[in-house]
Design goal:
Blueprint: H1 3-15, H2 19-31, H3 36-56, H4 62-86, E1 94-100, H5 108-120, E2 122-126, H6 133-143, E3 147-151, H7 158-170, E4 178-182, H8 188-193, E5 198-200, H9 203-217
Parallel strand pairs: 1-2, 1-3, 3-4, 4-5
Helix pairs in contact: 1-2, 1-3, 2-4, 3-4, 4-5, 5-9, 6-7
This protein binds cobalamin.
Residues 62, 103-110, 112-113, 149-151, 153-156, 180-185, 200, 202-203, 206 line the site of cobalamin.
Length: 218
Amino acid sequence: MEKREFYEKMFQSVLQGEIEEAGELAKKALEVQIDPIAAINKGYVKGMDEVGRLYQTGEYFLPELVAAGEAMKTALKILDPVLKEQKTERKILGRVVLGTVEGDIHDIGKSIVGSMLVATGFEVVDLGVNVSIKKFLDTVKEVKPDILGLSALLTTTMPNQKKVIEALEEAKERQDVKVMVGGAAVTNRWATEIGADAYGEDAITAVELAKKLAASLT
Ligand code: B12
């Protein structure tokens, strides 16, 4: 198979959400010495970009988004160790700490956001659900992320997003991290009210925002 054909198949595997196929192609590409960075950028990432476009135009829905993210992650899991060996690690777009706030156990949307960020090239520390204010604060201090993503799906847990921001301010950690909020209950207005830097209504927007926020830091 020619390189071009490989890239096209990789593109298609993400577009069609073919998780196993995406992984198999990554393995085969390594066998024939295809540069993993080229495979990622010319194949899989192009697929992800197209999936994002189709989602925004309403042709793709959540299941396609999830499957594409999984396909991409499967390929990356195979290619990343080789990149590390070669010491030519893929350029990390930024570091993100992500979690669902205290009292809230909804994790589907937050996990999709995490997968999409990883698939795009962010390093993500996913703290899971029901994350305490202290845990967010301690992790920000320890990991020094570019972005902190706070998910909340309940009107009763949204105030915890505000409390995390307040805790960051009190600890003088707020100036070094951009805060992005989201979740079904959250609105742009709420984000502004609590002093967040951005509000993402879905995973695609979250990725776009994260790219902009990370770029604004460099
Ligand atoms: C599935 C679900 C559950 C599951 C959760 C399973 C799980 N592992 O996550 C279970 C059954 C456990 C559950 C429990 C409860 N739920 Co519930 N649940 C839902 C439901 C049906 C879907 C949520 C979901 O996964 N959506 C799909 C994902 C992909 O969408 P999303 O979460 O919005 O995420 C997207 C965006 O918001 C954004 N996003 C999400 N997070 C982030 C973060 C950042 C940083 C950014 C930028 C973007 C972003 O990107 C995501 C991808 O596009 C919603 C209804 C709804 N339509 O939202 C109710 C809903 C959220 N639940 C509700 C309630 C009331 C509850 C319970 C209190 C019910 C009860 N009485 O026990 C409990 C609370 C438990 C708790 N303490 O958290 C209410 C909340 C009402 C409100 N406004 O407060 C809703 C809206 C249902 C309703 N209409 O009443 N729930």
